Amino acid sequence: MISKKKILSMAGAMLAVSLVVAPAQSVEMFKNAGWSGWAFDTHGCYNVSWLGPEFNDQVTSIRSWNESWRFYDNINYGGDYFYNNRRDYSSLVGVTDGLTRWGDWNDAISSMQCV
Q1: pLDDT of 33-66, one tens digit each?
Q2: pTM tops 0.85
């Protein structure tokens, strides 16, 4: 039989492990809808002035881990932008928040800032 003290000790260890693996402030962006395909992860709160040749204008879904980010349609934080307001997007098709041009945010993000 396991003692109460051992159960509490094991529960404390499991809580400590779950706190370590919880995502830090970061954002994941995916090339496909539904958070699938190639992914770009900031692994922290870092501003990215250009997503590079692999992800520039190729983001279709965003998982923000309940953090706020500002996404821009030009490099170096230029052009139109939108805040995700801690929201995840399984698809950016039809998302037009902050745009002054025709279209949506699907395959349009070039830079981003942690806010």
Answers
A1: 999 999 999 988 889 999 999 999 999 999 998 8
A2: no
Residue 64 is part of a domain; what is its CATH number? Answer: 2.60.20.10
Give the pLDDT confidence of 75-98 residue by residue, as tens digits.
999 999 999 999 999 999 999 999
Residues 6+ apart with CB under 8 A from 77: 47, 49, 70, 111, 113
Q: Give the count of domains, the chain.
A: 1
**SS3 (DSSP) at 31:** strand
Residue 90 lies in a domain: yes
User: Can you tell me which residue has the tokens 């170096």?
Assistant: 76
User: Domain range for residue 69?
Assistant: 24-114
Task: Tell me, rounded to whole angstroms, the distance of Cα 56 from its chain centroid.
Answer: 15
DSSP E strands, 33-77:
36-41, 61-63, 69-74
In a domain, 54, yes or no: yes
